[in-house]
Amino acid sequence: MWHVEAADGQVVESSDADEPINPASVVKVATTLRALETLGPAHRFTTRFRASGTVDPSTGALDGDLVVEGGGDPDFHVENAFLIAAELNRAGVRHVTGALAVDALFWTGWEGGADGTRMAADERAARMAAHLRRALDPGLWDRSTRRTWIECARSLGLDAAHPPRVAVARTRVVPAGTTGEVLVTHRSNPLALLLRRFNAYSNNDIERLDATLGPARTLGPWLAERLGAPADLVQVETSSGLGTNRLTPRLVVALVRALAGQADRAGLALDEVLAVAGCDRGTVTRLYPTVSRTPGVLVGKTGTLTHTDGGVSVLAGVLRTNRGDLAFCVAAPRAEGRIDAARRATERWVIERLAVHGARTAVPCAGPPSGPADHVEVERMQATLAVPGRSEAARGER
Q: 46-188+373-394 belongs to which homologous superfamily?
């Protein structure tokens, strides 16, 4: 099943394009479009680290709780925690006598989307607090975290031999709005970089954006209105593509064109929010190796469900040809038990179209997707609660 349109909207070719399919992770393109239109490409998610107690730099003690005010950042990882620990050390905090107190809008590490997040909010927050506690204290690191620290220190110019450390004895969950003096503010990578990272690696934790954009059940009606499509042709269960979702190949192409248009209005190329074959190590390059031998010729999004809905392999995006850009969607449904064969069939389909229209060569590659800490902003406010005789003029030092 497929549908192809030229840049002006002219239908180039089509087969069963109005039959509903499960688009799998191509749903992430809809989530990306909604995020860009709602928040803008430069949006950053803010996480604040507060002192609910006093700080004594002479001993390195925060006598009280270290409170984490989550801001819905979907891409906070151990690398980000390293930066926070470093700034807390500079603020005079090396250990916390109270608890690491986390609210329900803070997440760290990968969960796998809906498959890994079906738990009570407090239970999930407790798990996130435990992850963060381990990341802040090298004494609790495993081998993988130590490797990540060495790589992060090298890329960010930090001293790998002396990792920052904030030791906390226990954790607890607190309600949103818990107060305390802000010690460090962490602002995520800009949204466009963050979205490209999620799309390139097809990570289902893009669902975390629901906390900011609205629940997944609202994405389908939003998308139907945005595309001017009948509501019964747009069904969305999750914003990642897990589960049972429905779009037609023709509507997927309309979605790709809508994202390309929104990216252009935001001053972005489509490459800056989606994966590019042969230019990154994401799913397009990994799953479509033959097409990737011509880097940059395909910008797009993969979708795979091995069992759900009978299995499906989907590829959608833009082919860069000598006759202009072609927006396309090709799908192989009913692929359970033969996903690899289905994917090879969709790749053959792409190769045949590039042979007919001519693959545009010498397309410049965008760089690899940014890491989670590559372009973040971390701001340290000097603690004032605990330092006897501290002048008012010192407040707000950066």
A: D-Ala-D-Ala carboxypeptidase C, peptidase S13 (3.50.80.20)
Here the tokens at position 203 are 């990570």
377-380 β-sheet, strand order: 167-173, 95-102, 61-69, 46-56, 181-187, 377-380
| DSSP-assigned beta bridge partners for residue 330 | 2, 315
Task: State how far the Cα of 172 lies from the Cα of 65, in Å rounded to an integer.
Answer: 10
Show the CA angle centred on residue 220, arms to residues 216 and 333, nearest 5°: 100
Q: Locate tokens 């984490």: which residue?
A: 68
User: 159 Cβ partners below 8 Å, 6+ apart?
Assistant: 153
Model's pTM, two decimal places? 0.93
CATH number of 2-42+192-357: 3.40.710.10
Task: Give the tens place of pLDDT for each residue, 206-258.
Answer: 999 999 999 999 999 999 999 999 999 999 999 999 999 999 999 999 999 99
The helix/strand count (H/E) of the chain reads as: 10, 12
The gap from C-alpha 368 to its chain's centroid, in whole angstroms, comes to 14
DSSP letters, 146-190, are: HHHHHHHHHHHT--TTS----EEEEEEE--TT---EEEEEEEPSP
**Alpha-carbon gap, residue 383 to 88, rounded angstroms:** 10
160-193 confidence digits (pLDDT tens) = 999 999 999 999 999 988 889 999 999 999 999 9
Helix (H) or strand (E) holding 85: helix 78-90
Distance in angstroms (rounded) separating the CA atoms of residues 206 and 35? 10
What is the DSSP annotation of 375-388?
Answer: T-EEEEPPP-SSST
Task: Give the domain ranges of the chain.
Answer: 2-42+192-357, 46-188+373-394
Kindly list the distances between the CA atom of residue 202 and the CA atoms of 15, 197, 210, in Å, as whole numbers in the listed order: 26, 8, 16
Report how far residue 265's alpha carbon sits from residue 258's, in angstroms, rounded to the nearest whole number: 11
Bridge partners of 315, per DSSP, are: 302, 330
For the chain, the helix, strand and coil percentages under 3-state DSSP, each to the nearest 5: 40, 25, 40
* Tokens at 163, concatenated: 């990792």
